[in-house]
Amino acid sequence: MPEAKRKPGSQSAKPGDHIEAIRERILAAALPNVAFDGWTTKVMRAAADAAGVSHGEMRLAFPGGITDLVDCFLADGDRRMEEALAKRDLAALKIRERITLAVRTRIEVDADHREAVRRAVTLLALPISGAAGARALYRTVDAIWRAAGDTSTDFNFYTKRAILAGVYSAVALTWFSDGSEDYADTWAFLDRRISDVMQIEKAKASVQKIGALLPDPVALLGRLRYRRS
Question: Where are the alpha helices (DSSP H) in 6-131?
Fold first, then answer.
């Protein structure tokens, strides 16, 4: 469950800290119920009540409604991944090892909320969510590459993120239904797929060909709509 990063109302509080604190409180109150009831407006309102937040403040914190709350949850996972990776000596690892560790860490930080993640991805795959799902996926893979030390600014920048988006989506889908001990099947699948990410130089010359061999993130997310809750 997300931990508050600051004390609301402290003298050092910056403008917007109050809203951020409200988001954290509502998210923390909502998570225990999401696995059973899904990401719904009813759950968000109940979480606001449980957190002692008025519905007016709730709407101010999440003007986009439940989609904003889901995005807050996924963004918090990215933040927790970055914090976990900052404690590791990534410079001592090869790039392949860095990416593998980052993807695994991103999944592991939400190990206690797997159903919440699955339901979040399902919701963002729906047409009513617009481009929120694509933005969240981009933010995650961009955070992974930056944590791995990527400094590219040319076409390679986009190629890396497009390829990793496919890999990450496929790994997440495997994780959602993985019943193996300690998610061994997911990590084995990750190891097999991560080799695709390492083909960046070849991808620059034939990105369309390589992209056709990778899982389609949109199709993978769409498949989740039909999974039973």
Answer: 17-37, 41-50, 55-61, 66-86, 95-108, 114-124
